Amino acid sequence: MDAAFIRALAARLGGPLPGRAAQQQMASRFRSRLSPPSHARSSGVLMLLYPHEQAWQMVFMKRTADEGVHSGQVSFPGGRREPGDKDLIHTALREAEEELGIPASEVEVLGQLTELYIAPSNFLVYPSVGYLPYRPAFQPDPAEVAEVIEAPLSLLLHPQTRQMRHIHLRNGLRASVPAFWVKGHAIWGATAMMLNELLELLRGLRQ
Predict the structure, then answer these.
(1) What is the Cα gyration radius of the chain?
(2) Reported confidence tier of residue 171, pLDDT bands at 50, 70, 90
(3) Which long-range contacts (CB under 8 A, 24 or more apart) does 6-13 make?
(4) Would you say the C-alpha torsion 119, 64, 108, 17 has a positive or negative sign?
(5) pLDDT in tens, 122-138
(6) Angle between the 189-202 and 3-13 helix axes, to the nearest 10 degrees?
(7) Phi–psi pair at 111, nearest 5 degrees
(8) Which CATH class is domain 3-202?
(9) Are the CB atoms for 131 and 153 separated by under 8 Å?
(10) Domain edges within the chain
(11) Residue 207: pLDDT above 50?
């Protein structure tokens, strides 16, 4: 795979980011635009790129069904910052290793995207973009991960992948939301918003 692509992406991440404008393209109509409160909890997620089957891939996880706010949703690996985490990049790497078995020490962090506040869980999420030169041997934690979902960048960037989809909300209602339709799964909400900012950076780069 082309190492120049990774270097070009790292350079893009070090410059001006698409930011809120790219995120808002995938925001649902009922999403609050309130600024994060002072008591918001910091968290980190890992957006991992790696080569597999002659294509650049990304990995997502479908969360297990429980009583949590994001139960059953598709997300990036990640979670809340713990006292021992030196920064939110460390948080993202630690969580990715705990949830999916991604070796934290071997991930090259290329940069970070724009933070995003998630009101239902009161998380202020900091996305880190990472790179592995090989496909990791995923070892999902069954307590947290129902399914590992891999998607090539070509699919994520394809215009037809971006759709309006009906999803079930926790209150029992259905809503139509902007989403990325990937292998029978709707990637929507905060995950779709963060993903869209990365895709805005990737458009035009050689893959």
Answers:
(1) 16
(2) low
(3) 6/49, 6/108, 6/110, 6/131, 8/205, 8/206, 9/49, 9/110, 9/129, 9/201, 9/202, 9/205, 10/110, 10/111, 12/201, 12/205, 13/110, 13/111, 13/112, 13/113, 13/129, 13/201
(4) negative
(5) 999 999 999 999 999 99
(6) 110
(7) 160, -175
(8) alpha beta
(9) no
(10) 3-202
(11) no
Pairing of strands 41-52, 123-131: parallel
CA distance readout (Å), 80 to 87, 119, 148, 175, 196: 11, 14, 20, 27, 22
Predicted confidence at residue 65, as pLDDT, reads 79
Tokens at residue 26, please?
């995938």
Taking the C-alpha atoms of residue 177 and residue 18, their distance in angstroms, rounded to an integer, is 21
CB neighbour list of residue 132: distance below 8 Å, 6 or more residues apart: 48, 49, 50, 102, 103, 106, 107, 108
Pair of tokens at residue 191: 């995950």
**pLDDT, mean over the chain:** 92
The percentage of residues in the chain with a pLDDT greater than 70, rounded to a whole number, is 92
pTM over the 0.90 mark: yes
C-alpha to C-alpha distance for 169 and 72, rounded to whole angstroms: 11
Q: How far apart are CA 184 and CA 165, in angstroms?
A: 11
> 25: which residues sit within 8 A by CB, 6+ positions away?
178, 193, 196
Tokens encoding 127: 């996305």
